[in-house]
């Protein structure tokens, strides 16, 4: 199983970035997918998640209205569109996948598989 995240970079506050995560080795459509981030000196935190049913999507309050998670089952891809980025959004972003996640646990960090992370830096 491999999750490969990409798309991070250095941007200015107010800019946009789109992160991508390609999965292999799993029956992708059966997995809930999440994005988490970790800033230096801080714990990893939940950002967004999408259930395998496509209908249930969760966001951290800090990113609601600015970030959008989506998935493409045909391509085994999950995306995170990030708009109006703020310095507090900086960190390493990780994608995660889990086949057993139920809706009520989408926001918790207990996912079976994790990508290697992609760094997002936001300058003020």
Note the main attributes of this structure.
mainly beta, seven-stranded mixed β-sheet, globular, four-stranded antiparallel β-sheet, about 120 residues, about 50% strand
What does this structure look like?
It is a single chain. This protein has no helices and eleven strands. With 124 residues, it is mainly β. The N and C termini lie far apart (37 Å). The model has no long low-confidence stretch (mean pLDDT 96).
Quick structural gist:
The protein has strands at residues 2-6, 9-12, 17-24, 32-38, 45-50, 57-59, 67-72, 77-82, 91-98, 113-114, 118-123. The chain has 124 residues and is an all-beta fold.
Q: Ranges with pLDDT <50 over ≥5 residues?
A: none
Q: What is the makeup of the main sheet?
A: 7 strands, mixed
List the total number of helices: 0
Average pLDDT confidence is: 96
The amount of helix comes to under 10%
Strand content: over 45%
Large-scale geometry: globular
The number of distinct β-strands equals 11
- Rg over CA atoms, rounded to whole Å, is 13 Å
Secondary-structure-derived class: mainly beta
Distance, first to last CA:
37 Å
Give helix and strand order, one letter per element, not per position.
EEEEEEEEEEE
The oligomeric status of these chains comes to: single chain
Topology of helices and strands:
Blueprint: E1 2-6, E2 9-12, E3 17-24, E4 32-38, E5 45-50, E6 57-59, E7 67-72, E8 77-82, E9 91-98, E10 113-114, E11 118-123
Parallel strand pairs: 2-11
Antiparallel strand pairs: 1-3, 3-8, 4-5, 4-9, 5-6, 7-8, 9-10, 9-11
